[in-house]
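Trying the structure run again after the queue cleared.
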Amino acid sequence: MAVLTIPSEQRQILEPEEIQAYLRKINIGFEQWQANQPLTAEATAEQVLAAYEPEIAQLNARGGYVTADVIDIHADTPNLEVMLAKFNREHYHNEDEVRFTIAGRGLFHINPQTSAVVSVTVEAGDLLVVPKGTWHWFNLCSERRIRAIRLFQDMSGWLPHYSDSKIEENFQPLCFA
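Done. Tokens:
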């Protein structure tokens, strides 16, 4: 279950419909999905993509996505700290960042520029769509594990463009609860 936190208001939103409504106001997509077939923790990337094929097809049609893959990050991932260093600084991309969490948890901070920075803790079943050009950063939660489906409009467009604002230093980098 996702958790939306608005640090400047010391407020959390826990209900999926309320999270979706709040995020819609700042142009962030949020949905919750259920697997169409049971998946085990050992499911291959191909099995995961097949289980969510109808939902992926709908997203492809809506967002012009052309490919999908499965990323699996855990505490033993080689060069984990180097990988995370790319994502835990404020940045944007030239295409949407689309993530459907299958296992584990992650923390997206969104800086909409027109309102307060918010954080969204995502876990299994949560789909987050961060539109191109949106300032954000990402951290793992304390268990340092996330498995997610990623969708791309163009693999070459997913490079981060950093703000170098250091705003991320003012926010809790990990989710613990």
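The helical segments are 16-25, 45-51, 53-63, 80-87. Worth checking whether this holds up in the mutant runs.
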